[in-house]
Amino acid sequence: MKTAHNDKKTWKLSWIAALAAVVVIVAWMASGSASAQKDVAGKDGAGGTSVLARIGEVEILSSDVEATVATELGELDRQRHELMEKGLEAAINDALVEIAAEQKGMTSEDFLKAEVDAKVTAVTDADVDQFYEARKGQINQPKEAIVGQIRQYLEQTGRNEAFGALVAELRKEHKPQVLLEPMRVEVAEGGAPAKGPESAPVTIVEFSDFQCPFCSRVIPTLDKVTETYGDQVRLVFRQFPLHSIHPQAQKAAEAALCADDQGKFWEMHDALFQNQSKLQVADLKSRAAELELDAAAFEKCLDSGQHADRVTADLEAGMAAGVTGTPAMFINGRFLSGAQPFEAISKVIDDELSRAGG
């Protein structure tokens, strides 16, 4: 198979070429950095750890420095992998277009004109008016000043959608085999509450905050995940209270774990998220009463801070994995941030099941 050409003069987004260059540069920098580090480690270090500085007899090791910036380095690794994935996706799309064009005896440019440009509906004045009216509160400019920009945006959006539909069909037909492994971060369950069998091929470890509004929004989505996939998915809930903006999240997390002691974690989980405006300690005790928990045992657990250390352990585990906000999910170690829609989560789950032969 021929490789996709990068010099085709098509309407496709100009960022593809720039992105490819970035991917190459990032990969070159990473490999160069790794090689240099191996050379130093071979001379000065042990076990792959290099000496970065000396002050008299004191040595500062790469492992020491990496430990202090582990979160930032993890984020850089994630960004690099995302660039690789985007660059690979663009390269696959280019290759699919070229294959399809050759099968029809056409150039890629003519093929795209026939299969994409010719199928894009012309943007009308009514389309421009509708777009502007829906967003004029955000645009803060008279329509006459940006009509051309709106029209250009809508035309490009139409082309992008048509191109996306085309490559989706080509992918179904040619079934490209992606060998790039997804980036994974090892995140343990940490003894956290879970539902679904331990043998499930897919494990979702969620870091969440009971006072976080976005965390409550993702619950129906995760409920749909467990209903859709059944025993194929295990859901683990770990605590990540954002103390600086959610002062009641810590005690709410402890309350959920106190309820877990009595076998009602998920009932308390649902009750807390259903009324996030009432998370004071008195409210937490009221929730326990509504769930018919042993009141004395619950109150002793909550008032003593019995599970405060468990909450802290979850928080530290999340930060070590690169979590900075909630909700955050790791699907077999693959990171998803924010209240993702079902389609985004199921896409990763389906891919994991496919990789597992399920």
What does the largest sheet look like?
5 strands, mixed
CATH class of the largest domain: Alpha Beta
Mean pLDDT value: 88
Level of helix content?
Answer: 55-70%
Unreliable residue stretches = 1-47
How many DSSP H or I helices?
14
Q: Could you spell the SSE succession in H and E letters?
A: HEEHHHHHEEHHEHHHHHEEH
Radius of gyration, in angstroms, nearest whole number: 26 Å
Strand order of the largest sheet: 3-5-4-6-7
Structural class: alpha+beta
Q: Give the number of domains.
A: 3
What is the CA–CA distance across the termini?
30 Å
Quaternary structure classification: single chain
Per the CATH scheme, the topology name of the largest domain is Glutaredoxin
Question: What's the architecture of the largest domain, going by CATH?
Answer: 3-Layer(aba) Sandwich
Please indicate the percent range of residues in DSSP E strands (runs of 2 or more): 5-15%
Overview of the structural elements:
This protein has a 5-stranded mixed β-sheet with strand order 3-5-4-6-7. Strands 1-2 form a two-stranded antiparallel sheet. The longest helix is centred in the first third of the chain and has 34 residues. It has 3 domains: 97 residues, no CATH class; 58 residues; 162 residues, Glutaredoxin. Strand 6 and strand 7 form a beta hairpin. It has 358 residues and is α+β, with helices and mostly antiparallel strands. The chain starts with 14 loop residues before the first helix and ends with a helix.
